[in-house]
Amino acid sequence: MVFCLPNGMKPRVFSGVQPSGDLHIGNYLGALKNWVKMQADYECIYCIVDLHAVTIYQIPSELRAKIRELAGLFLAVGIDPKQATVMVQSSVPAHAELAWMLTCVTPVGWLQRMTQYKAKAATQETVGDGLLQYPVLMAADILLYQAQIVPVGDDQTQHLELTRDIAQRFNSLYGETFVMPQTHLPLVGARIMGLDDPESKMSKSSSAPGHAVALLDPPDVIRKKIMRATTDSRPAVNFDDLGPGVRNLLNIFQAFSDWSDAEMRAHFEGLGYGETKKRVAEMVIASLEPIQRRYREVCAEPGYIDRVLREGAERVLPIANSTIELVKERMGLYTFAS
Ligand code: AMP
Ligand code: TRP
């Protein structure tokens, strides 16, 4: 679906990924693959959200390395810095500035209800205030650029609803200021489940070795992880009665291949699980191979990643600053007399 603006301007897209853990095929199929498709038709801003990552303690040297690795992966999957903007959240201070202004219009109860907050808080000995504020910062990321469309995986829909609630509340208190962003989910791949546990979402934070396929996993590791994926005791693929493990594997295959439901059925119906897993593994390996090759090329070019990130921040700064000026004006905060 292409959203049209009357003056021929492209609608703006914003999305982000945290530079924590290893980027996996769930992140790729749920978010990044869509980002690449959108860059020709929209004005896209893709952000490495390092301020979100530090809501849970990160070892500084590892975080620093992860930010560059993630930027390299953005470029390797096909995000073209000539078409789309790639930037790091903390390099544009207005993200944190707007987050504070939005915090002041957000009832605490809205934040305490967030399912990701409850799940993450339960794993922490002491819960930092940043973890509670996390979705307000996310709202600030989006509203700072007046983004119309936000391509994410299914796990972010609640945060996007909250973003709209915050924008609406701000608009009703201070007058029309923010554009209402829409959530954009992929048709297939919006929720890839763990290979070891198909009842839970594939997640960067799981430490189980067979849980996720990372984008930079070598072929033999991918093969091993998929061959060991949890399935069920049925003898073969039956599309009318799929267990969650097999459904997840077929979902992964379909999201990588872009095959139709009919093609999937013709290819896999009645196939034994061993052979099914082999085919899924080969599809994943073949799809990740060009990404991994491109990643090595991008990293081998001295200074390239830092140049892209610097230019990205410079490109979005005027948009960010003009929103901050507008919000200050609306709220009655001090602005220098011109
Ligand atoms: P995160 O890993 O939380 O930084 O997520 C980055 C992006 O990947 C977000 O748009 C998520 O919705 C998406 N994502 C994360 N895990 C999955 C998954 N298991 N399946 C589909 N999309 C996912
Ligand atoms: N919370 C998102 C996630 O974990 C990452 C994120 C931060 C984001 N800011 C955003 C996604 C703005 C979309 C738009 O996946």
Task: Please describe the topology of this protein.
Layout: E1 12-17, H1 25-38, E2 43-48, H2 50-53, H3 60-77, E3 85-88, H4 94-103, H5 108-112, H6 115-121, H7 129-144, E4 149-151, H8 157-174, E5 182-184, H9 219-227, H10 244-257, H11 261-268, H12 273-300, H13 304-331
Parallel strand pairs: 1-2, 2-3, 4-5
Note down, in words, how this protein is organized.
The protein has two domains: 12-185 and 303-331, HUPs (Rossmann fold, 3-Layer(aba) Sandwich); 219-297, Tyrosyl-Transfer RNA Synthetase, CATH 1.10.240.10. It is built from 13 helices and five strands. Helix 4 (94-103) packs parallel to helix 13. It has helices at 25-38, 50-53, 60-77, 94-103, 108-112, 115-121, 129-144, 157-174, 219-227, 244-257, 261-268, 273-300, 304-331; strands at residues 12-17, 43-48, 85-88, 149-151, 182-184. It is globular. By secondary structure, it is mostly helical.
The termini sit apart by 42 Å
Domain unit count: 2
| Unreliable stretches | none
Q: Count the helices. How many? A: 13
Task: Indicate the CATH class of the largest domain.
Answer: Alpha Beta
What is the approximate shape?
A: globular
How are strands sequenced across the largest beta sheet?
Answer: 1-2-3
* Mean pLDDT across residues: 95
Number of strands: 5
- Portion of residues in beta strands equals 5-15%
Overall structural class, as computed from helix and strand content, comes to mainly alpha
Please estimate the helix content: 40-55%
CATH topology tier name of the largest domain: Rossmann fold
